[in-house]
Structure formats: C-alpha cells, structure tokens
Design goal:
This protein has one domain: 3-Layer(aba) Sandwich (Rossmann fold), CATH 3.40.50. The chain has 12 helices and 8 strands. It is an alpha/beta fold. The protein has an 8-stranded mixed β-sheet with strand order 1-2-4-3-5-6-7-8, with helices on both faces. Helix 6 runs antiparallel to helix 7. Helices cover 35% and strands 14% of the residues. Helix 10 links the parallel strand 7 and strand 8.
Length: 326
C-alpha cells in the first residue's frame, strides 16, 4: 500500500509540475565561463593564477567536471581549471554532428593556449579525458610539462574491441531497466535549449551510483549527485556508435606521442575492469618509455572522486618532479 502511495504521489508531481535539468551558461548568467573562439565553456578556476596552470579533462564523452571537484586541494600548488567539454555539463549545447574527437582536441588546445600562453601546462585526464590527453600529447608535445592519465578505455581499434567486449560482458538487461522510468518522465521535462530531455535521462543514469563492478570495488559507489548534467549528444555521436560496433573506432590516439619529452604518469585501479592489469597489458606498451604506472590499490575507476587524499598526494609528488627529460 505504501509503495502505491509513493508511485501515485510521484505521478501527481509530474502532472502538476515540470521536471528540470540544470541550465547551461547560455541560460544562467551567474555561471562562470571562459569564451574561446565564440564558445562559452563553463569553467571552475581555483588557486593563484601565478601558479602553474593545471587543466582537468573529465570523462565521458558526455560527462561533466563536477565529479572531479574532489581533487580541488591541488589548487594549493596549481592554478586548477575544471571545464565542461563542448556540448556537455553546463557548457552550451550544439549540433550533435560537431561533437567529435577532433573538435574535443581542438577545444583542449584552445584552453591550453588561453591558460598557458607561452608556458607549458599540466594536464589530468580521467577515462575518456585520459584518451584526449594522450592524443593531445602526440599532437602538441611541446605544450605540456606533466600529464596524468587515469584509466583510458581505448587508444586503438584493438583496445576498443577489448574494452567493448569486457564492458558488455559485465552488464545485464537489469542495468538498463531504470531507464524506462526516466524515459516515461521526459514529457514533463522543461526545455530551453531542446536537449534537456535526453540529457535528463542520461544524467539520471549516470547518477544512479551503482556500487561495485564493473568500475568500483565491492561496496564502493559514486555519490548520487556526482554529475551536474550529462551531454547526450556527445555520447551519441562519439561513443554510442563504437559501443554498437567497436571496429568503427579507427583512431590511434598514441600517434606522435613518442615526441613527448615531459613527465607522464598513468594511474590505474585494482578493482576496475579496465584497471591496472588491463592498462599494463593493452595501453602501457603504447606509452613513451618515461611513463610511470601507479596502481591505486583497493580502489576503483573513480579514485579521484572517492579517494581524493591519496590522489592529490600522488599527483602532487609527481608534479614535483623536474618538468622535462632533457
């Protein structure tokens, strides 16, 4: 009886009011942003601007930077810049077809040029963000002094096939069941930019905070409000086709990375299905010889979020190393 009352109450709420998602900088003038080449990236800047610039590249494609705010203690020694990638988070929505890996790298370069100027920057990339950072090091090795990459999923077609195979093996139809309820709510989602309804469903799925495998250790889960707003268009254009057919991933994100002479650290977890053993077997052989591989023991894929003290200490010690092999 009590559960039926809850369901009825939820239905009445939907019928009498609208469901909303967090607006982007386009519709909320109070949100901080930096405008580059005519586009307003939502950013959160911490630390003295005289300190070395550190740009944090979030996961996805289609996630946002909020879940990484837990490492904000890095601002003690760095000017930290969290940004929401184009079409994701609280950055404005754009046409889905312009959201590509190439445009993501061009955007990262615009941010590096803006915050770094003639000086080298530091980069942290998590998951999809780690894939972008690795590709960026191959394109612009001279612009980065230190880079930290945390569990990149796929760097080549071979690793894309392995990643998708492992991911699908870890999932069941039960994982997608809550989506039906979220989809039923979409007619009641208020819209301003026309992307809110699909973003709403994806945000709810990302914020479900499922504990344990395949990404976390047993009993470990992300906070339920870890993400501000997903960007479904970025996911649909860049990742969804690869999940359907991993052979469509025709990139080699390590191309040119041998020219990178700065410091590079890969951080991998013990519990994630793409953790230390996966990275050691598939991705580390593709990295430059100076790459340091660190295992986050008894941690999962989101150690930056769930184990910030360990993460900040490990990254700070790495940044204290001389910035060049030369």
């Amino acid at each position: 009886m009590r559960s039926s009352h809850i369901l009825l109450g939820g239905l009445m709420l939907m019928l009498t009011g609208c469901v909303s998602v967090t607006p982007t900088v386009e519709h909320d003038a109070t949100l901080p942003f930096v405008e580059l080449d005519g586009y307003k990236f939502h950013v959160r800047e911490l630390g003295d601007r005289q300190l070395p610039p550190l740009i944090v590249v979030h996961g996805g494609p289609g996630g946002d930077s909020k879940y990484l705010y837990s490492i904000d203690a890095l601002a003690k020694k760095n000017h930290v810049i969290f940004y929401d990638q184009r079409g994701t988070g609280l950055s404005p929505r754009v046409a889905q077809e312009v959201l590509t890996l190439e445009s993501s790298l061009a955007d990262l370069d615009a941010l590096v040029s803006h915050y770094g100027g003639s000086e080298k920057v530091r980069l942290i990339g998590h998951s999809w963000g780690a894939m972008l950072v690795i590709a960026y090091l191959g394109q612009h090795p001279e612009k980065v002094s230190h880079a930290v990459v945390v569990e990149p999923g796929m760097l080549t077609q071979r690793t894309a096939i392995e990643f998708v195979s492992r991911l699908k093996a870890s999932q069941s139809w039960w994982d997608a069941l809550p989506m039906l309820g979220y989809l039923a709510s979409t007619p009641f989602v208020s819209t301003q930019d026309g992307h809110e309804r699909f973003d709403y469903v994806m945000t709810r799925m990302m914020n479900r905070a499922k504990p344990g495998a395949p990404y976390q250790c047993d009993g470990e889960a992300m906070p339920q409000d870890a993400f501000n707003r997903a960007g479904y268009g970025a996911f649909a254009n860049m990742l969804k086709p690869v999940l359907n057919d991993p052979a469509k991933f025709q990139y080699d994100l390590t191309r040119g990375i041998s020219a990178y002479q700065g410091q590079l650290m890969m951080v991998s977890s013990e519990c994630s299905f793409i953790g230390y053993a996966y990275q050691q077997r598939f991705n580390m052989p593709l990295m430059p010889k100076q790459t340091q591989h660190v295992q986050a023991k008894a941690m999962g894929h989101n150690m930056l979020t769930l184990n910030p003290e360990w993460s900040v200490k490990t990254i700070t010690e790495f940044f204290d190393k001389p910035n060049s092999l030369n």
